[in-house]
Amino acid sequence: MTSVFAQQDRSGTYTFSSHPRALQGRKKYRQEEQCTTGYYGNIMYDKRVVRGNTYAQHILPLTAQPDPIEIQRQQEMQRRAVARRRAKAQLRATTPLPVEGRIHTEVQTELYLEELSDRIEEVDVDTQTDAFLDKPPTPLFIPGKSGKDVATQIEEGELFDFDIEVKPMLEVLVGKSIEQALLEVLEEEELANLRALQREFEEIRNAELAEIQRMEERERRYREEKKRRMLQQQEVLKKEKETADKVAARAFAQSYLADLIPTVFSTLRDNGYFYDPVERDVENVFLPWLMGEVKKSIEKKILGRTMLDMLLRDVAKNRNQLFRHMEPRRTTNE
Question: I need a surface site. Which of 20, 98, 104, 105 has the fewest CB within 10 A?
């Protein structure tokens, strides 16, 4: 593993040093990374798409405030996701660009060279052994030699010069570090601006929702007050009309009955239609009251008898069941 020493002097100069190391063996073909993030092909099944009335879902009470714990948890999850992506990007093995005049090529480093071809050679071999023979020991597998041996003479210092080769790598590492730092600073500033805009938008939306609710409540009170006032006015007009009708009827009756009452009383007195008020009071008031009291007393007696019959019936039923349960026990004891 490469040991990296990065320090910053008091004067503000950034220095970088690293121990030399051997390059790690890399595979012939690059492995494509599988994307684990699920994307929806149809927005009808995307959970981020809001369905239905979007206005009714955001109606908040007047005292509604965002939960700070939930906001902190979401920010922590976002920071973890960003750190995870950065770690994956840093752990991805990359190959530095070749120096001027050279190119990268695939070289076999095995003990025996093999001829590489797209078509695999296959040979069918059959053999017949005698019965009941011990199996011979399995020989050590040595792959057959194929292809041609090629040698290349490399002089001292021709393949790798540390001072020359490490300079572009160091430039790439320093440039990438500075570029990554700038990107992180820009991302943090952009995220801070987005959070500020989001908070401002939520505050404006909550204020608008509260104002709309207040206006709706005021309109509802106005409608109820208007309806109540209309009902009161209708009642007043109705009472005024009834009063006017009564006054007119009373005046008409007084003018009509001014001479009729003495004539009627004299006629009824002559024909004997007047009755004794005491007798009439006894017949119309006292006797109905007396019959009602007698009826109530009789109903109370009937109700008492009915309740007594029900109690006696329940007691007899319970005693009968108790005796039935006791008879098997007595038979068992005998």
Answer: 105
SS3 (DSSP) at 62 = coil
Summarised one tens digit per residue, pLDDT across range 89-113 is 877 766 777 788 888 777 777 777 7
Local structure of residue 22 (DSSP, 8 states): P
Those residues whose C-beta lies under 8 Å from the C-beta of residue 143, and which sit 6 or more positions away, are: 112, 114
Phi-psi map region of 144: left, alpha, beta (phi>0 left; psi -120 to 50 alpha): beta
* CA–CA separation, 246 and 239 (whole Å): 10
0.70 surpassed by pTM:
no
C-alpha span between 39 and 46 (Å, rounded): 9
Residue 104 CB: number of other CB atoms within 10 A? Answer: 9
d(CA 286, CA 34): 104
Q: Are 14 and 8 in contact (CB under 8 A)?
A: yes
User: Which tokens go with 323?
Assistant: 């005796």
pLDDT of residue 223: 92
- The Cα 60–Cα 152 span in angstroms is 79
